[in-house]
Amino acid sequence: MKQLLEKKSLLALLIVLALLFPLFVPNQYYIHILTLAFIWAIAVYGLNLLSGFTGYLSLAHAGFFAIGAYALGLLTVKAGMGFWPAFILAPLITSVIGFFIGLIALRTKEHFFAIYTLCVGYIIYLVIDKWDSLTEGVRGLMGIPAPGDIGPVSLSTPLAQYYFVFAVLLLVIFTVYRIVNSLTGRSFIAIRNSEQLAQSLGISPWRNKITSFVLSTFFAGVAGALYASFIRFIGPEIAYTTITFDLLTYMIVGGIGTLSGPLIGTLLIVWLSQNLQFLQDYRMLIFGPLLTLLIIFSPGGIVGSFRNWQFNRQEKKRLYAANLKKQAQEG
Q1: H-helix or E-strand containing 313?
Q2: b/e sequence 299-310, b meaning 16+ C-beta within 10 Å
Q3: Which of 86, 116, 134, 280 lies 20 to 30 Å from 148, alpha-carbon distance?
Q4: CA dist., res. 133 & res. 158, Å (int)
Q5: pTM beyond 0.85
Q6: What sections of the protein cross the membrane (predicted)?
Q7: In 3-state terms, the chain is what percent helix, strand and coil (to 5)?
Q8: What are the C-alpha distances in Å from 267 to residues 66, 141, 162, 189, 233?
Q9: Residue 124 CB-density burial (10 A; 0-12 exposed, 13-18 middle, 19+ buried)
Q10: Could you tell me which residues come within 8 angstroms of residue 300 by beta carbon, excluding any fewer than 6 positions away?
Q11: Is 287 strand, coil or helix?
């Protein structure tokens, strides 16, 4: 069971459960909620790549999520573009905007970076909210098309969209896995641990940080485009800071800087939120203290706590075996 949560066995189990879920739970409401959870998980993976593996906490992630959503919405509704070209362009547009924002944002560090990105996220919200002629402001952008057909395969039904979003999520997880386990990913981790030490080893902090930032915005753009095509109506509230803090909650609860944490945290919190809707008015009052306690007593989240428990268990076994060997030798 060593590092089960980070191994391929978890992914295989996830695939089987997700494929079978609509067969055993044909309720359209639960399929809708799980599809949304998959979309949020994609956004959290982007945030985790920057915050968890590179060590830079971005509070503008909801803004980039909204840019991806509005890019797809505006290209399809106002520019008359087909769904698939718009779906490809939406995360690319988000990445380009993220690149230019990152050029300035990454000149700051630590809490200054977080404060700067918080301001950027709020500016993105204000632009969407106030630019009525382009975004329709508070009225929202309506009439966004569902994903277009892929040959004979139709993606217009909720079940088909469920499997489509899930397939994109798997692709994102695989991509993040390859990035993290590449030389680039190890450079991100080195910068997170010590930027000065990484630079002394010949790693370019600036190039790697901007790469991580752009990749993070790209995944946020993908999630935003999926959200727009799934809900088919978007408003400026998707760029608000509360969405960013929701994404942070998913990431921290699951395990920041882990590969499976974003998915576990997102599914768990979304499930709890849906089953505790009668406490919706007290949501922040409940989750706020719980999140604070989690950060204090288990900063590694669910995955980190499991790995620590597993490590301590193996260490006890090793010490016990060593003592038995020592006693046998003395006897």
Answers
A1: helix 301-330
A2: ebbbbbebbeee
A3: 134
A4: 31
A5: yes
A6: 9-25, 31-50, 57-77, 83-105, 112-128, 162-180, 213-235, 247-272, 284-306
A7: 80, 0, 20
A8: 21, 28, 15, 26, 23
A9: buried
A10: 255, 256, 258, 307, 308
A11: helix
Check: CB of residue 81 under 8 Å from CB of residue 254: no
| Residue 191 to residue 52: CA distance in whole angstroms | 11
The ranges assigned to domains in the chain are 8-243
Residue 182 has, within 13 A of its CA and on its CB side, a CA count of: 9
Asked if 95 and 214 count as a contact pair (C-beta separation under 8 A), the reply is yes
Amino acid at site 237: E
Q: pLDDT per position in the chain (331 positions), as tens?
A: 444 444 556 666 777 888 888 888 778 888 999 999 999 999 999 999 999 999 899 999 999 999 999 999 999 999 989 999 999 999 999 999 999 999 999 998 888 999 999 999 999 999 999 999 899 888 889 889 888 888 777 788 888 899 999 999 999 999 999 999 999 999 999 999 888 888 888 888 899 999 999 999 999 999 999 999 999 899 999 999 889 988 998 999 888 888 888 888 898 888 888 777 666 666 667 777 777 777 777 777 787 777 777 777 777 777 777 777 777 776 5
Short-list 238, 243, 240, 234, CA closest to 134: 234
Q: Is 128 left (phi over 0), alpha (psi -120 to 50) or beta?
A: alpha
